[in-house]
From TrEMBL:
The organism's taxonomic lineage, starting at the top: Bacteria, Pseudomonadati, Pseudomonadota, Magnetococcia, Magnetococcales
GO cellular component: cytoplasm
E.C. number(s) listed in UniProt: 6.3.2.10
Protein name stated in the entry: UDP-N-acetylmuramoyl-tripeptide--D-alanyl-D-alanine ligase
Pathway in which this enzyme or protein is active: Cell wall biogenesis; peptidoglycan biosynthesis
Source organism of the structure: Magnetococcus massalia (strain MO-1)
Length: 467
């Protein structure tokens, strides 16, 4: 049976109110070979969607898209000059792209894993992808295209021969996950954890209320899961019961052995090949080797294993897939410098819970005198930002980290909290760039250095400087 194609006929079905302006020769292409919302990466034969933003009008790129070989265009108005390709005019191109994505998802009908959570989404996505690839033709979200634009693009970019798809879902405010879940219609959902990430978008007065609000927003995935689906939830998260109450489908829990989760991990050992642990599931147990560092990576692997098992993957495939997983740049990758010093490149993003998990990972890799952190501001924490930054002093102490370099105006709160502790060496710069060219003199080849901060702090500059 031939695979379905993204055709003008499918577009007409998904967008019945679109106004078609034919090409100069009145011909319609047999199909579109890709979809793009950016003329810089547009390939000939693609369907181009002109997505305007608050500060730019994408309709002005329509002639460029046609010149670059677009086989069709969706826009909110017709340009003055005729085009060499068909144009569909709609009131809102983003909504049209979402409608088309849902139509394409239902036509392909792959089994879909939808993933959200405060941290670990991309890592769990990559782990699920590695497991599924051992048995199936699968696809997954590219990079972090996990928002109201990225999820439709992910669905529409899925090749027609893929039987399984992993979709990452991000959010910064309530209601967004519900919208993405409606689009993706996942068969299995994962919520990795609930932490104070994007807390500024919730406006709650205290930490407990903020976490409740974040749990409710992430829990929209559980609320939209059909009774035939399954939710994979973190058993050792303080909001587990709150999340479970939102699901009208079976729930599989994951966590440490002590959490009594359905899928759990046992004692962790660190060797030359990475971390080894025993994965215990309702269908048996198996030894896992993971090329990553930190208990949070093991927890993420357990979540991925639980979800893939719900789709019929056997334990042997789960172990094989996880053994092939490698953390990407900025997501906990370990880099060795020319001098022999080890860097933990965790620069992609940060929130308080993820910071603590990274501190724990550092403590597993180095002796106390050789543990060093270089940490930048955690952004989007709202009015409680100073509280969250100063609060990092406790996990730093708990994990035996005494050499600390901070960067960014928000990190001043942590520096001040540590300044009166005699056993702590803490140095601060308001601008991360001020550490460039200066940190190397403070470090030795025996040190293991964690570099972490929110994406906007561009802490990868420090990693590159120290390499």
């Amino acid at each position: 049976m031939p695979h379905p194609l993204l055709t003008p006929e499918l577009l007409a079905t998904a967008l019945p109110h679109a106004i078609l302006h034919p090409a100069l020769d009145s011909a319609l292409p047999p199909c579109f070979n890709s979809i793009s919302s950016d003329t810089r990466s547009l390939q000939p034969g693609a369907l181009f969607v002109a997505l305007s933003g608050p500060n730019f009008d994408a309709n002005r790129f329509v002639p460029d898209a046609a010149r670059l070989g677009a086989a069709g265009i969706i826009a909110s108005r017709k340009p003055d000059a005729p085009l060499p390709c068909p144009l569909w005019v709609v009131e809102e191109p983003l909504q049209a792209m979402s409608q088309l994505a849902l139509q394409w998802r239902r036509l392909l009908n792959p089994q879909i894993i939808g993933i959200t959570g405060s941290s670990g989404k991309t890592t769990v996505k990559e782990m699920c992808g590695a497991i599924l690839a051992t048995r199936h033709r699968s696809a997954m979200t590219r990079g972090n295209l996990n928002n109201h634009i990225g999820v439709p693009l992910t669905l529409l970019s899925s090749p027609p021969d893929r039987t399984h798809l992993v979709v990452e879902m991000g959010m910064s405010a309530p209601g967004e996950i519900a919208h993405l879940a409606q689009l993706a219609e996942p068969d299995v959902g994962i919520i990795t954890n609930i932490m104070a990430a994007h807390a500024g978008g919730f406006g709650e007065a205290d930490e407990a209320s903020t976490l409740d609000a974040i749990a409710d927003a992430k829990g929209e995935l559980a609320s939209w899961m059909p009774p035939t689906g399954c939710m994979v939830l973190p058993a050792d998260d303080g909001r587990f019961k709150r999340l479970r109450s939102k699901a009208d489908c079976p729930v599989i829990s994951f966590g440490s052995r002590a959490s009594l989760a359905d899928c759990s991990y046992g004692p962790i050992s660190l060797g030359e090949a990475g971390m080894q642990f025993t994965l215990q599931t309702p269908h048996g147990e198996i030894g896992i080797t993971l090329q990553a560092v930190g208990e949070h990576a093991v927890r993420n692997a357990t979540a991925a294993a639980a979800a893939c098992q719900q789709l019929g993957l056997p334990l042997q495939s789960i172990a094989q897939g996880l053994s092939r997983f490698q953390p990407g740049a900025g997501r906990g990758a370990i880099v060795k410098t020319a001098s022999g010093m080890r860097l933990i490149d965790d620069t992609y993003n940060a929130n308080p819970g993820a910071m603590e998990a990274a501190f724990q990972a550092l403590s597993q890799l180095a002796t106390p005198q050789h543990r060093v952190v270089v940490i930048g501001d955690m952004l989007e924490l709202g009015e409680q930002s100073a509280h969250y930054h100063a609060g990092l002093a406790e996990p730093l102490h708990r994990w035996g980290i005494q050499r600390i370099f901070t960067a960014g105006p928000q990190m001043r709160a942590l520096h001040d909290a540590l300044s009166e502790q005699p056993d702590i060496q803490c140095h601060h710069q308001d601008d991360p760039a001020a550490w460039l060219g200066r940190l190397a003199a403070e470090l030795s080849p025996q040190d293991t250095v964690l570099v972490k901060g929110s994406r906007g702090m561009r802490m990868e500059r420090i990693v590159n400087d120290l390499k």
